[in-house]
Design brief:
Strand order of the largest sheet: 6-7-3-10-11
Radius of gyration: 15 Å
Helix content: under 10%
Shape: elongated
Number of helices: 0
Largest sheet: 5 strands, antiparallel
Order of helices and strands: EEEEEEEEEEEE
Oligomer: single chain
Number of strands: 12
């Protein structure tokens, strides 16, 4: 799935991180399968763009993203210690040809 969904991230500010996926042609990501958590940060807000509705053979009527999706997270450190912090994220996508990938779990070291 790493080739179908290329993910990267940037800090827009000390309290905002942007996570982006480039989605190959004929693939899509499910909006409801995105999950973000952290033992090091409070996640105050998750901003997802408007998705397209797709009648999906696996999950029925679903909100999905094609081509590109960018998620903005408003975060705050839980402590002021200057340590390496992590953010866990999950996502899931499919190929239009009928193959769905298992949920992908990634730990970002920030």
């Amino acid at each position: 799935s790493e080739e179908a969904f290329k993910m990267d991230y940037i800090f827009k500010s000390p309290t905002e991180i942007v996570v982006r996926w480039e989605i190959n042609n004929s693939y899509y990501l499910y909006k409801e399968k995105f999950s973000f958590s952290s033992k090091d940060y409070f996640i105050d807000e998750i901003k997802l763009p408007i998705a397209r509705i797709k009648e999906d053979s696996y999950f029925g009527k679903s909100e999905v993203y094609y081509n590109f999706v960018e998620v903005n997270l408003i975060i705050r450190p839980k402590t002021q210690k200057k340590t390496r912090r992590t953010l866990a994220l999950e996502y899931q996508g499919c190929w239009e040809g009928g193959v769905c990938y298992p949920i992908e779990k990634i730990i970002l070291k920030l």
